[in-house]
Amino acid sequence: MRQRPVAPLAAPLAALLAALLAASCAAPSQPLLEAGGSAQPAAEILDAREVVVLTAPPHEATLARSLRLGYTEISTHRLTDLDEVLIVLAIPPGRTIAQAIAEIEAASPGATAGAHHLYRLQSATGAEAGRFYANALIGWPDDGCEAVRSVGMIDAGVAPSHPGLADGRVVQRKFFETDAPPASDHGDLMAGLLTGPGRLTGAALHSANVVDPAIDGGDAAGVVGILRAVDWLRGEGVDVVNISLAGPRNKLLDRGLARAAARDMVLVAAAGNDGPAVPPRFPAAFPFVLAVTAVDRTLEVYDRAARGAEIDLAAPGVDILLMDRGRMRVLNGTSAAAPFVTAAIAADHGLESLEISAVRRRLAAGARDLGPAGRDAIFGAGLVSAPESCGGG
């Protein structure tokens, strides 16, 4: 089994991030086609020499057929709670990702092959004066609200020094091989918005650390890590999962997350911060995921938020003040908004079903309509409100 050399890839992947940030003045990357999909920029691919396969167990026949075609096994992960097996393969020289996908899927009907896409964190810290407006805007009590559903997040990891790890309020597992602390404090901040002071009480947070510090500047995760994280969270009995990552559509992510949602795991995702004119970002744009946009204290939409028919709800996400272990932080972005929706679901005593359409109807019924009357592409059903069991509604 070939092991991926981590260190040699770090430099070129960091260069890809720099190219993305400087996209307005740099030449565009050569797009990579995923079979049955649209062109994907090279900067959204973890490694163009790899293809990822998702198949139902037993997987040995699929793997054997792939090896006979010249592919090399890099790693295999059994997703026990999703009833799937994830195989990472090295593509033979001279073949593209699109060719590899088509070849493997033709050889193994029922298997899904795809690129190893990257998904980036969707919030940024700011220096401008934030305000403690968010709780009042949605009717959330300042002393917090009791969770009646278990909560998880797929994000960067919380720091080893985070007090929640020591006292059991945070249960964490990482899904990459690099032995390094998180490159950013994004995980700490999201944990604070979910279960910090004044947020959800009485529940441990399951933190799936998928953001490898050695990849792409330490702000992105690969599809393999995300799917492994979903499988772990389901095995831990987590009901509601907050996802602060956004990226391209991926057939593997579609298949794996759809399986989790069909088993009543509620997935809440940041809609994305790439602006109103870009194509939908995933996983938020999948129909079985709740897509959350961000608004400010005047109920204006965040100027970098994605827009489209996939938007389900709006929540506070601009100039969000958060105390993080004695430091005042200001957060902006759809990542900052998503935890307010996740918390509202987790604290709702009246939510009788975790089937996604039932959750969507329940949230829409309690939302405050914004923008044009009815559901729209900017605010979805409107501003989320705290459930009646928390004093909202």
TrEMBL record:
<dbReference type="InterPro" id="IPR050131">
    <property type="entry name" value="Peptidase_S8_subtilisin-like"/>
</dbReference>
<dbReference type="GO" id="GO:0006508">
    <property type="term" value="P:proteolysis"/>
</dbReference>
<feature type="domain" description="Peptidase S8/S53">
    <location>
        <begin position="150"/>
        <end position="382"/>
    </location>
</feature>
<dbReference type="InterPro" id="IPR036852">
    <property type="entry name" value="Peptidase_S8/S53_dom_sf"/>
</dbReference>
<dbReference type="InterPro" id="IPR000209">
    <property type="entry name" value="Peptidase_S8/S53_dom"/>
</dbReference>
<dbReference type="Pfam" id="PF00082">
    <property type="entry name" value="Peptidase_S8"/>
</dbReference>
<keyword id="KW-0732">Signal</keyword>
<protein>
    <submittedName>
        <fullName>Subtilase family protein</fullName>
    </submittedName>
</protein>
<feature type="active site" description="Charge relay system">
    <location>
        <position position="155"/>
    </location>
</feature>
<dbReference type="InterPro" id="IPR023828">
    <property type="entry name" value="Peptidase_S8_Ser-AS"/>
</dbReference>
<keyword id="KW-0645">Protease</keyword>
<dbReference type="InterPro" id="IPR015500">
    <property type="entry name" value="Peptidase_S8_subtilisin-rel"/>
</dbReference>
<dbReference type="GO" id="GO:0004252">
    <property type="term" value="F:serine-type endopeptidase activity"/>
</dbReference>
<feature type="active site" description="Charge relay system">
    <location>
        <position position="186"/>
    </location>
</feature>
<keyword id="KW-0378">Hydrolase</keyword>
<comment type="similarity">
    <text>Belongs to the peptidase S8 family.</text>
</comment>
<keyword id="KW-0720">Serine protease</keyword>
<feature type="active site" description="Charge relay system">
    <location>
        <position position="335"/>
    </location>
</feature>
<feature type="signal peptide">
    <location>
        <begin position="1"/>
        <end position="26"/>
    </location>
</feature>
